[in-house]
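Predicting structure from sequence has reshaped protein science. With that in mind, we have picked out one protein's residues alongside their backbone shape tokens:
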Amino acid sequence: MIVNQWIAAAHRGDAVGDNARMIRNLLRNWGHESEIYALTVDDDLATEVRRWSDAGARQGDITIFHFAIPSPMTRAFATLPGGRVLLYHNVTPAHFFAPFDVGIARFAAEGRRELATLAGRTDLALGVSDYNRQELVALGFDHTGVLPIVVDTARLTTAAPVPALELLLKDGLANILFVGRIAPNKMIEDHIRLAEHYKRYVDIYYRFIFVGNYNAVSGYYATIRALIAEYRMLPDRFWFTGPVPDRELAAYYRHAHAYVSLSEHEGFCVPLVEAMAMDVPVLAYSAAAVPETLGGAGVAFAPKDLEVAAEMLGALVYDEPLRRQVIAGQRQRLSAFGLDQLGPRLQSLLAEVA
């Protein structure tokens, strides 16, 4: 059987593309023919991912369409002759972007409109979380399920050290890590406010590290920088690294004292799984799919009281028995995202469509 996948863009380190490659490897191991097709392909992935213009993109017995942004793929997918499986990674609601970039807000709104056009035109509609699946049901999709993201944690757990960077990270400051785009739904401003509470009530020896693209919403990033200046905080205690290769990302995780997520909209949140795999205790605001991904692991909290969060963060950094307890729970939760769990689920779902 030919089981192909469509993704809008193939970028190394992107959660959607990484997930598609893991699925493709599983499919090939099971004896299926399987390719990934994308509208845009990074040069270093040219031998792994084919262009969507290739005729083979329309010849799958089953096609899995990873939906995350609007694209010409949406209309074409609805007319494919073979089995059609939608895998919904979520689209950030437009209202998060509206105050900072009208163009991105329109793009996000269009993504949700396009998604709705596929209701009744798929054989199976999957969310990477039940949170996403419920959105699909609300839009009118009637045959739904859940297939969590397959996260390639080995690329981090087996990464070689980066001595120069790791020396900088071992200077005695508590490293508080965040990984992801600097985007409004991530609520980076709350990280800055958390840092102010942490500095005032817990500890002055801290460093907040943000690993990810900060150019996606430039107006929002400028707002974050302005907030740091408004609080008169030391700029060198806030690192915005931009995108980094896996070796450096692994180094940041390896030397993080805690991972913090204050996001108000996540369809899954891959960095939570990465942090668990790297034994970094997680402190997360309990919103959207975050509590589902954590599954009782880490420390999740609501409502968003940042003074209380600062106290919890201090405990995760300095209370060694608590750290060990949280990390043990995270290791147990991590097993839910292994291939031995997700592989049989994918086989069963594809068998329904076939």
Notes: The first strand starts at residue 3 and ends at 10. The mean pLDDT is 96. The two ends are 9 Å apart (CA to CA).
